Amino acid sequence: MAALHAGMLLIGLLASICHESFQAGGWTEIKEPDTYWCRAMAEFAYRSKKRHIRGSLIFFITQARYKVVAGTEYQLGFIVFINDALKEKCIVKMLIPPIGTPGRKATVTKLWCR
Question: Where in the sequence is the signal peptide annotated (predicted)?
Fold first, then answer.
């Protein structure tokens, strides 16, 4: 009986340590996605791909997750409001290289809006 409890404790410990590897594709969900950092990334991605948009833009982040590969890859789901009216819903995938990389700049891999 003690061996069974020890085995269960070991499995629980490994699950808590390797929590990220049990999630879908190694992605880690950000529990409260509507933060300043996520809104700034969404605005950067949106303005870099849609330069012709004018007006007062507000970004509401609905989903955010990240994966550490060669740098940090982010996937954000957000809603864009222009002059307090809903404009479109978007999903963006972007890569931020590690600190110290020459020419370090975030790149937008994919932006899809409807």
Answer: 1-19
Give the tokens for residue 58: 């507000």
Helix, coil or strand: residue 50: coil
**Which has the closest alpha carbon to 56: 94, 79, 22, 85?**
85
Domains of the chain with CATH codes: 25-113 (3.10.450.10)
Measured in degrees and rounded to the nearest 5, phi and psi for residue 12 equal -65, -40
Distance CA 110, CA 42 (A): 12
pLDDT at residue number 69:
87
Give the closest residue to 60 by CA, choosing from 73, 41, 79: 79
For residue range 51-99, list pLDDT tens digits in order: 887 778 999 999 999 999 889 999 999 999 998 899 999 999 999 998 8
Taking the C-alpha atoms of residue 61 and residue 34, their distance in angstroms, rounded to an integer, is: 5
Q: Which residues pair with 76 in a beta bridge?
A: 64, 92
Structure tokens at 68: 């550490």
